[in-house]
Each structure stands twice: as structure tokens, then as C-alpha cells.
């Protein structure tokens, strides 16, 4: 069975969260993400979950970290200003390997910037915003259907790898309405719980895939959860370089070694392309339109739609850099992903940027003129 | 074929809901592709408000309206702000009580714009007794003057979009808009 709706991206995200099994939301309303909190304040109580409006975004992420350790799938939603406030606790969720989902519906920044306008200026903040070494996972939807689907995927990845996952949306996708189909049959993943006896259990001992089992508070295990570097028991171990290397390298490697499984990318019309457009999130829509327009004029253009900006699909970017002469990264900032593409493509292809700020989607005709300059 | 519609007015007139209903009518009931987007300021009421709908029998990639085929203006400010973008031979639907038509006469004649009048605010007040349904009267007018959505689909979309206790008033408003004369306004 499936049902159809004509709804906003933000509404689709809230429904996706419920379908994924999210039963706790804490947040502070902020445009353009507020509809997610509004909808979950109605949906969660009806589905046996809890909704709390917190005093700010610092406490919001704190609350969902606690909820996650209580055994619930938990989420918060925000936009740039709130995401900035969450950075410290986001690092805490990384080092404590706490599964949770943070939705950032991006608006123009810096600071409070443009509340009602779209941007993609937080891409590098997801990568480097909290201090120290870590490998984030981020998903960027480019349609209302994808906002629903990726919310479920974000929960599944966070539970599977025991990591915070960022759903990096933007105002266009958050507020746009499109038809979506919600299927009854949705696969959900839940963290692995320990089965061994309390005294034998090591909460930070990794299984083969680098991920450790996760009990909840109240399951009968003695748990020490700390932001300090810790050993397999969870006890602070802050002075021995080996302890730190072992922990932080494992945290990074559980993402890097599973990159092919996590990274999602879609390539179209690339085999014969002279120019390949690369984008993520709502600006993908302009890129697809520009590709069609270019092909109609006989120009060999393809596109790469990156659904997971983090981890970057490096293999695929390298592959297309060996085919096309020019790669054009289209993004709604003054140049962030373009640096990643340049780093991966090296001298295989010329990398260019169409970086648009101000709040409007890149215009397909602007992209087409850039293509014509190059071919 | 891709058709772009822009509905504009000031915040509080129900402009965005009008766009949502048109989008829903096309997508869920007429079963063709539709994307609805909007633009609004940080204010809750007052300020400019704009809803846009793209309707197409093909996949809609670029979701925003660039040059609308149809412009619906519910305030003079909106009319002046968005008129320039209207396509040649495009359709303009205005509430004559809310605008000064003389100011746009040259543009209309030069670009061969087809103009329709829909006294949405007056009809909502006088015939329905509820000024806030002016947007639904306007939807009735849009359904009558253009072929972007069918009568049945729009009626169904209104019924699933408005609060339960207001269904009959909203349908009365829709019918009143649909009953308007579709004579073109002659500005010569």
C-alpha cells in the first residue's frame, strides 16, 4: 500500500522521521525549518513519542543526545544560526558515537543573514564545524520525495554506524511542495544492542565493521559516557597517544572504510560528455534543466548529482574528471564543494565554479552560458 | 507543455494557500506534474507575498517560475512589481477594486496581454459574507479563465485543504468565482 501527498519538503521530513522510528524531538524553531518541528509536535505524541521545545539549540542537541542514550531514535531540526550553536555538542556526539539526526534547512548567512532565502553555505561547516578529527555523514535532498527518503536513510545510517548524521537541506526544498508517495513498506535499521553480561561488556569495543554495540541507560550496564578520549570501557584515557590514535582513527575509519556503501551519487549522460555539471541539494534541479537545454543544442553535457556531500564520492568524481574536459560545480555559496572537486580531480579536468548567493536558485540559462564559454 | 503561474498580493490575503490548492488540484486530482514554491518576507502579515506553481505534463526540473504565462495580482503593489515578467500574450487576472488599471494600459496593449477582472474581495464580502475567502473566489476565477486545472479537481483540492467547518463557505466562494464572466477586458 502507498499513499500520495502534495506537501512541503519540511512536512515530508517530519513524516519520514516518524516512519524511520524517530520517537524524540527537541528543538528551537527557526525559519526555514520550523514546519519540521511544528509537524513533529503534532505527530510524535500520536505515535508514542515526545516533543520538547527547548530554550535554545545548544540544549536541543543536548536533549537528543540524552534521548538517544535512553534508547530512542532522536532528531532535531534547525537552520544555520542554530547549527552554529550545535557544533560543540555535535563533536560530543561524534566522540561518544551517539546516533542522531540533525536537519539543517540552510538559509543565507553568515549570522542571521537571510531567514527566508535559500543557501548552501554550511557545507564546510558540516565537515569542519566542530573541533578535532571526525568524518561526518551528510545527505542533501533535491526533491520533496528525497527529503522524505533521505530522512529515513539518515536514521538508518546513524543507527548502523552509531554516528550523528546531518540532513543538509535548504530553503527551496524545505518550503517547496511536490507530490510524494509514501509506501507502507519501509526498511528501518536499529543500533545493535549488547547481549553479553554486564561485567563482560565493553561499550567502546568495536566489532569488525568498526562500530560497537550500544546499550541504553537502564539496560543494566555500567556506562561512562564522556567527551574525553576514552578506552574500550569508556573510561577517560587522555594522556597516552596510542589510546587517542586508536579511538579517533577508528571513528574516522568506520566512515572512510565504508565510504562506497555510504556515498550516494547519480550520474547522467556522462559517458560522452565534454562538460560535467556537479551539484547537490536544490541546485541539482537547475543543473538537470541546464543539461537538457545544452543537449537540445547539441552540446555534450552530463551531470553528477551528489546525494551525500559527506563522505564525498571520491571514486566517481575522479572517474568523471578523466572523461570530461571541464567540471562545473554549481552551488549556492561562494565556493565550497568546488575545492573538494578540485582536490579530487587534480589536473585531469579543469574545475570551475558557478557560486550563487542571495537566496535564489541558480538559473539554468546562467549555467548554459557558462557551458558555452567553455566548449 | 510547461505552464507557469504566479499569484501575488500582500501577506494575509491567502496567496500561498491559493498556490497550494492549484498545485494540489493539478498534482493529486488532475494527475499531471506540479511544483509549488513561494516567496515571502519575515513579516506574518502585510509585506509582499507570492506563490508560484509550475504545471507540466513532463518532469519539472527547475521548480521556480521565470516568466509566468499567467499572473494573478491581488494588490496594486504586486501587480506593478511582477507585471514586467509576464509573457507576451500572457493572461493577467486582477481584482479591479485593488488596482489602478490605467497604470498598466501601455504594457497590456504592447504585449497583447489578455486581461480578466475578478472582483474577488467584493464578492467574498458581499456574496459569501466572509472577506477572507477572497483567495478562493480568485481560484474559481482562475479555474474559469484558464485551462490549467479542471473544475472538479480544483473543487476536490479546496475540500481537502480548508478547515472542516469552512467547507461550504469556501465552495460558495469557489462557485462565485467560477460564475464570473470570462469576457476579456478591453483597454483600448
Automatic annotation (TrEMBL), chain A:
<dbReference type="InterPro" id="IPR052368">
    <property type="entry name" value="2-oxoacid_oxidoreductase"/>
</dbReference>
<dbReference type="InterPro" id="IPR029061">
    <property type="entry name" value="THDP-binding"/>
</dbReference>
<dbReference type="InterPro" id="IPR009014">
    <property type="entry name" value="Transketo_C/PFOR_II"/>
</dbReference>
<dbReference type="InterPro" id="IPR033412">
    <property type="entry name" value="PFOR_II"/>
</dbReference>
<feature type="domain" description="Pyruvate:ferredoxin oxidoreductase core">
    <location>
        <begin position="273"/>
        <end position="367"/>
    </location>
</feature>
<feature type="domain" description="Pyruvate flavodoxin/ferredoxin oxidoreductase pyrimidine binding">
    <location>
        <begin position="16"/>
        <end position="249"/>
    </location>
</feature>
<dbReference type="Pfam" id="PF17147">
    <property type="entry name" value="PFOR_II"/>
</dbReference>
<dbReference type="Pfam" id="PF01855">
    <property type="entry name" value="POR_N"/>
</dbReference>
<dbReference type="GO" id="GO:0047553">
    <property type="term" value="F:2-oxoglutarate synthase activity"/>
</dbReference>
<dbReference type="InterPro" id="IPR002880">
    <property type="entry name" value="Pyrv_Fd/Flavodoxin_OxRdtase_N"/>
</dbReference>
<protein>
    <recommendedName>
        <fullName>2-oxoglutarate synthase subunit KorA</fullName>
        <ecNumber>1.2.7.3</ecNumber>
    </recommendedName>
</protein>
<dbReference type="GO" id="GO:0006082">
    <property type="term" value="P:organic acid metabolic process"/>
</dbReference>
<comment type="subunit">
    <text>Heterotetramer of the KorA, KorB, KorC and KorD subunits.</text>
</comment>
<keyword id="KW-0560">Oxidoreductase</keyword>
<dbReference type="GO" id="GO:0044272">
    <property type="term" value="P:sulfur compound biosynthetic process"/>
</dbReference>
Automatic annotation (TrEMBL), chain B:
<dbReference type="GO" id="GO:0047110">
    <property type="term" value="F:phenylglyoxylate dehydrogenase (acylating) activity"/>
</dbReference>
<dbReference type="InterPro" id="IPR052554">
    <property type="entry name" value="2-oxoglutarate_synth_KorC"/>
</dbReference>
<keyword id="KW-0560">Oxidoreductase</keyword>
<dbReference type="Pfam" id="PF01558">
    <property type="entry name" value="POR"/>
</dbReference>
<protein>
    <submittedName>
        <fullName>NADH-dependent phenylglyoxylate dehydrogenase subunit gamma</fullName>
        <ecNumber>1.2.1.58</ecNumber>
    </submittedName>
</protein>
<dbReference type="InterPro" id="IPR002869">
    <property type="entry name" value="Pyrv_flavodox_OxRed_cen"/>
</dbReference>
<feature type="domain" description="Pyruvate/ketoisovalerate oxidoreductase catalytic">
    <location>
        <begin position="11"/>
        <end position="179"/>
    </location>
</feature>
<dbReference type="InterPro" id="IPR019752">
    <property type="entry name" value="Pyrv/ketoisovalerate_OxRed_cat"/>
</dbReference>
Amino acid at each position: 500500500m502507498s499513499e500520495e501527498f502534495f506537501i512541503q519538503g519540511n512536512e515530508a521530513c517530519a513524516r519520514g522521521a516518524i516512519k524511520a522510528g524517530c520517537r524524540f524531538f527537541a528543538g528551537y524553531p527557526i525559519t526555514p525549518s520550523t514546519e519540521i518541528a511544528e509537524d513533529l509536535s503534532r505527530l510524535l505524541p500520536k505515535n508514542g513519542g515526545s516533543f520538547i521545545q527547548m530554550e535554545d539549540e545548544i540544549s536541543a542537541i543536548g536533549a537528543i543526545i540524552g534521548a538517544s542514550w535512553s534508547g530512542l531514535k532522536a532528531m532535531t531540526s534547525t537552520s544555520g544560526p542554530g547549527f552554529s550553536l550545535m557544533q560543540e555538542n555535535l563533536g560530543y556526539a561524534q566522540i561518544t558515537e551517539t546516533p542522531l539526526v540533525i536537519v539543517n534547512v540552510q538559509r543565507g548567512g553568515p549570522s542571521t543573514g537571510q531567514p527566508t532565502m535559500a543557501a548552501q553555505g554550511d557545507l564546510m561547516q558540516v565537515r569542519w564545524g566542530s573541533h578535532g578529527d571526525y568524518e561526518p555523514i551528510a545527505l542533501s535532498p533535491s526533491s520533496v520525495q528525497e527529503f522524505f527518503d533521505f530522512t529515513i536513510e539518515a536514521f538508518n545510517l546513524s543507527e548502523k554506524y552509531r554516528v550523528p548524521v546531518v540532513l543538509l537541506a535548504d530553503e527551496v526544498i524545505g518550503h517547496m511542495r511536490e507530490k510524494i508517495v509514501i509506501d507502507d513498506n519501509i526498511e528501518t535499521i536499529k543500533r545493535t544492542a549488547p547481549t553479553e553480561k554486564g561485567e563482560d561488556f565493553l561499550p567502546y569495543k568495536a566489532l569488525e565493521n568498526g562500530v560497537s554495540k550500544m546499550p541504553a541507560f537502564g539496560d543494566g550496564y555500567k556506562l561512562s559516557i564522556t567527551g574525553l578520549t576514552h578506552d574500550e570501557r569508556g573510561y577517560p584515557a587522555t594522556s597516552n597517544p596510542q589510546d587517542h590514535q586508536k579511538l579517533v582513527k577508528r571513528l574516522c575509519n568506520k566512515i572512510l572504510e565504508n565510504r562506497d556503501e555510504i556515498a550516494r551519487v547519480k550520474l547522467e549522460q556522462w559517458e560522452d560528455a565534454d562538460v560535467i555539471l556537479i551539484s547537490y541539494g536544490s541546485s541539482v534541479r537547475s543543473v538537470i534543466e541546464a543539461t537538457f537545454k545544452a543537449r537540445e543544442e547539441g552540446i555534450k553535457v552530463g551531470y553528477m548529482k551528489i546525494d551525500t556531500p559527506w563522505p564525498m564520492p571520491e571514486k566517481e568524481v575522479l572517474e568523471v574528471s578523466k572523461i570530461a574536459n571541464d567540471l562545473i560545480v554549481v552551488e549556492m555559496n561562494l565556493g565550497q564543494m568546488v575545492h573538494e572537486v578540485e582536490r579530487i580531480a587534480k589536473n585531469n579536468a579543469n574545475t570551475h565554479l558557478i557560486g550563487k548567493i542571495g537566496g535564489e536558485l541558480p538559473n539554468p540559462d546562467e549555467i548554459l552560458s557558462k557551458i558555452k564559454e567553455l566548449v | 507543455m510547461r505552464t507557469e503561474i504566479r499569484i501575488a498580493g500582500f501577506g494575509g490575503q491567502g496567496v500561498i494557500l491559493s498556490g497550494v490548492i492549484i498545485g494540489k488540484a493539478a498534482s493529486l486530482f488532475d494527475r499531471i506534474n506540479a511544483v509549488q514554491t513561494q516567496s515571502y518576507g519575515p513579516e506574518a502579515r502585510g509585506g509582499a507575498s507570492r506563490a508560484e506553481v509550475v504545471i507540466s505534463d513532463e518532469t519539472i526540473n527547475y521548480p521556480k517560475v521565470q516568466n509566468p504565462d499567467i499572473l494573478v495580482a491581488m494588490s496594486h503593489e504586486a501587480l506593478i512589481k511582477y507585471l514586467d515578467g509576464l509573457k507576451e500574450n500572457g493572461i493577467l487576472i486582477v481584482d479591479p477594486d485593488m488596482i489602478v488599471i490605467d497604470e498598466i494600459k501601455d504594457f497590456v496593449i504592447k504585449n497583447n496581454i489578455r486581461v480578466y477582472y475578478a472582483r474577488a474581495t467584493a464578492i467574498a464580502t458581499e456574496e459569501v459574507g466572509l472577506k477572507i475567502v477572497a483567495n478562493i473566489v480568485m481560484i474559481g476565477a482562475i479555474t474559469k479563465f484558464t485551462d490549467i486545472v479542471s473544475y472538479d479537481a480544483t473543487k476536490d483540492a479546496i475540500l481537502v485543504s480548508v478547515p472542516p467547518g469552512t467547507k461550504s463557505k469556501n465552495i460558495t466562494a469557489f462557485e462565485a468565482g467560477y460564475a464570473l464572466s470570462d469576457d476579456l477586458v478591453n483597454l483600448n
